[in-house]
Write a structure and sequence with these properties.
By secondary structure, the chain is an alpha/beta fold. The chain has 9 helices and 11 strands. α3 packs across α4, α6 crosses α7 and α8 packs parallel to α9. Bound molecules: coenzyme A (COA).
């Protein structure tokens, strides 16, 4: 295991490889929301590293390994298998300490290109680990002294594991270090209005959004749900639920891309606001409030006397003002979404 000085050609190589991967999967459905990143130590200027470029691509849903292998073959990336059946980070990432996220969010696909050498981690957009590695990279980039400490720690570990036949124990030991710095890093992120990795999607959410009075398509519905980490019901159940709605809205960015949705279900006497979702990159810009305001206005125009919202208690603050200010009855239902 060799750790070498920082090489300025690493980011150039990473960009080229990411472009190749982008070209290979760029025409898949919803490819406009894929997020491509150069991650790991080679992505932190000045940091010593194993001379292997780490790349990450996040997708709404993980494709089958065989499907990815076929499509990525021309790029030189091939499926990587672990040295041992329990090798960490091959089929699943190691959850961070105290993680409450469901285990399947940590599933991944791992590829490598021995020629380069480079490693490609394919993760879900809602993978907590995917967010973690990008946050870690950005934290190291912003804190040269922490980066130096990390370098010293890594070199010590590399010496300790120099005789190992594989990287497995080295990787596990690094995981303990990550647990230690996690709280420090998150404090920094909160104090910085740091864009979380999924917010990289925001690179293309430009200008004001428009509210369009229509229901989301099944694809839009499922994609937005995935982007905020909600469960996705079967497509046919979504299709029949959507057509049974009283009214629906989608929020579109200037490129016509759907970045939010909301709908009203009910029977004319009772109305229920459901599925209010704004993609993470577009949150905090007033889109959610505008959608709910329009739904409430619609219920008033149609004389629906009782309007409630199905929402988790964690978003009660988001709804409170909107319903009470308009004199509409606000009933918070403890529905698990
Ligand atoms: C909740 C959600 C729809 C809000 O959309 P948004 O466009 O980011 O909201 P807005 O920009 O209009 O924010 C309006 C206000 O609500 C607050 N708010 C936004 N999201 C919130 C949340 N998750 N919890 C509590 N308050 C929230 C904002 O801070 C803002 O208050 P401020 O003006 O005092 O800063 C969006 O965060 C989302 O899609 N979340 C995941 C899905 C979800 O939980 N939907 C609601 C359940 S049906």
């Amino acid at each position: 295991m060799k750790i070498v000085d920082y090489d300025p050609s690493w980011p150039i190589r990473a960009d080229r490889l990411l472009d190749n991967v982008r070209a290979a999967i760029g025409d898949w459905p919803h490819s406009e929301v894929y997020v491509f990143d150069h991650i790991g130590s080679t992505a932190v200027p000045g940091l010593v590293a194993k001379p292997i470029v780490d790349l990450q691509v996040c997708l709404p849903v993980l494709p089958r390994l065989a499907e990815l292998a076929t499509v990525l073959a021309p790029t030189g990336f091939m499926p990587a298998s672990g040295a041992r059946p329990d090798s960490p980070g091959v089929y699943r990432d190691i959850p961070r300490r105290d993680s409450a996220a469901s285990p399947e969010l940590y599933d991944k696909r791992l590829f490598h290109s021995p020629e380069e050498p480079a490693i490609l981690h394919i993760r879900r957009l809602d993978s907590p680990f995917a967010k973690f590695v990008v946050l870690f990279r950005d934290w190291l980039r912003a804190h040269p002294d922490e980066a130096r400490d990390y370098a010293v720690y890594k070199c010590g570990l590399a010496t300790q594991h120099a005789a190992d036949p594989d990287y497995d124990d080295y990787t596990r030991a690094k995981s303990t270090y990550f647990d230690e710095i996690d709280a420090r890093m998150r404090r920094w992120a909160h104090s910085q209005t740091y864009c979380t990795p999924v917010a990289h999607l925001g690179a293309h959410v430009t200008g004001p959004t428009t509210l369009v009075e229509r229901l989301p398509t099944v694809d839009e519905y499922l994609l937005l749900r995935r982007l905020v980490g909600w469960k996705c019901p079967p497509e046919d159940a979504c299709a029949s639920a959507l057509v049974a709605s009283l009214f629906g809205l989608v929020a579109q960015d200037p490129d016509g891309r759907t970045v939010g949705m909301s709908r009203l279900v009910g029977d004319g006497l009772y109305g229920l606001v459901v599925d209010v979702v704004v993609e993470p990159a577009a949150q905090g810009q007033g889109i959610g409030s505008r959608m709910v305001a329009r739904l409430v206005e619609w219920t008033q125009q149609h004389d629906i006397p009782h309007v409630a919202v199905a929402a988790d208690t964690s978003v009660a603050r988001f709804y409170r003002g909107m319903f009470e200010d308009r004199g509409t009855r606000y009933l918070r239902l403890p529905t698990p979404l």
